[in-house]
Design a protein that fits this description.
The protein has 155 residues and is α+β, with helices and mostly antiparallel strands. It contains 6 helices and 5 strands. Strand 4 and strand 5 (121-126) form a beta hairpin. The chain is globular and about 50 Å long.
Length: 155
């Protein structure tokens, strides 16, 4: 993975929580990162207004958005019952909680198909692990459940 440099900056987009800005400024210089936030005004149970604000860095060529992360969080809540808000299906231990998240991350990266598109044309159907060169084919649950981890260490 490339390190952030002024010509290859890291982009951060968050909600309005002040903690994000503090930690991003602590970890990255302003020349190697750009940070923008979304401020939502809520009236009743609906979002009334959305304001996009560039905090630091040049973001004029980017649309400040948190929709990808919000979508991923929604996917987690839909698939892992202890992550649902106000649930009775809580994890009894931190280990159980982490194990459920590990399975979700594995399935999302190795088993689920993602369609890559070029314009309006579908190019390939691959998993994120295939796109990153970690896997050469889509995994199945059967392969995962029967996988011998020892093989990795013997090679």
């Amino acid at each position: 993975m490339d390190l952030p440099f002024p010509d290859k900056r890291v982009l951060f987009f968050t909600d309005e929580s002040f903690q994000y800005e503090n930690i991003i400024r602590e970890l990255y210089s302003d020349t190697c990162a750009a940070y923008g936030k979304i401020i939502k005004t809520i009236k009743g149970n609906s979002i009334f207004k959305i304001k996009r604000e560039s905090v630091f860095g040049d973001l004029k060529n980017y649309k400040i958005s948190t929709s990808i992360v919000e979508g991923y969080n929604n996917k987690i809540r839909q698939r892992i019952s202890p992550f649902v808000r106000k649930t009775a299906a809580f994890s009894k231990s931190m280990q159980s909680h982490n194990d459920k998240m590990d399975l979700f991350v594995f399935a999302n990266n190795f088993i689920e198909k993602k369609s890559e598109k070029k314009g309006l044309q579908k190019i390939k159907v691959r998993s994120p692990a295939m796109i990153e060169g970690i896997a050469t084919e889509l995994w199945t649950w059967m392969r995962f459940l029967n996988y011998n981890i020892i093989e990795i260490y013997e090679n």
